[in-house]
Amino acid sequence: MSSPVPGTIRNGVDVGQLMTAIEAVKTDPANGKLVFTVKSKWKGGLQSEHQPGTYCVGPQQGTHRVNHTLRVDEPAEILGTDTGMSPAEIILSALGACLSVGYSANAAAMGIDLDEISLEITGQGSLEGFMNLRNQPPGLTNVAVKAHLQSRNASPEQLQNLHDYVNSHSPIWDTIANPVKVTSQLA
User: Fold this and answer.
1) Which pick of 68, 107, 167, 170 has the fewest CB atoms within 10 Å?
2) Sites in the chain below the pLDDT cut of 50
C-alpha cells in the first residue's frame, strides 16, 4: 500500500485537497464548522418534497450548483402512495451516504484503493409509538449496518481498521446514535 501523494486522486478523492482541508481545521477549528439548511414542503397526503438551501463550511457560505429535489412518501401499507422513499429509509440512506463518504475519503488518506463499497442498512421500529400506543418510542429502535469493502491493495486487517475508524468518526452515525438537540417552533 502506498502513502498518499498530494495531487493524487484516489477513490475519486483529491488527496491534496483533503490534506489541505484537514490542516485548515487543525489550524483553526472554525474552518470545520458546518451549517446545512433544507426546505421542506408538504405535497398532499403523506408526500413531501425537500430541497437544500444554503450551507456554510467554515466562514464560507455556498449554494448547490444543481437544484436537488428529494420526494418522500410512505409505502401503501402505511397509507402512502409509494411515490418516494419513506422518511425512515431516507435517514438510513443518509447514514449509508455518510459512511460511503467516510470510507472513500479515509481510505484515500490511508493510501487504500477501494474497488467496492456496498452497504446494507436495516432499521427496526414500530408504528405503536407514532400511534401513541403502549408507551413505545416513535422512532427506529435498532439500526444495523453490513458493510462490504473490496480493495486490491489493502489487507483484511487494514480494511477492518478503516471500517472501525469510519464508524467511530461518521457525523451521521453520531447524529443518529447520540442525543441531538432538536427544536421546533410554529412560524
Assistant:
1) 68
2) 1
Model pLDDT, residue 73: 98
The 3-class secondary structure across the chain, one letter per residue, is: CCCCCCCCEECCEEHHHHHHHHHHHHHCHHHHCEEEEEEEEECCCCCEEEEEEEEEECCEEECCCCCCCEEECCCHHHCCCCCCECHHHHHHHHHHHHHHHHHHHHHHHHCCCEEEEEEEEEEECCHHHHCCCCCCCCCCCEEEEEEEEEECCCCHHHHHHHHHHHHHHCHHHHHHHCCCCCCCCCC
CA distance readout (Å), 124 to 37, 86, 141:
27, 13, 6
pTM of the model as a whole: 0.93
* AA letter at 186: L
Domains, the chain, in order of start with CATH, read 85-178 (3.30.300.20)
Residue 123 near residue 94, CB atoms below 8 Å: no
| Contact criterion met (CB below 8 Å) for 5 and 18 | no
pLDDT score for 5: 58
CA-based nearest residue to 115, from 3, 11, 1: 11
Contact 126/142 with Cβ under 8 angstroms?
no
90's CB contacts (< 8 A; 6+ apart) are: 70, 72
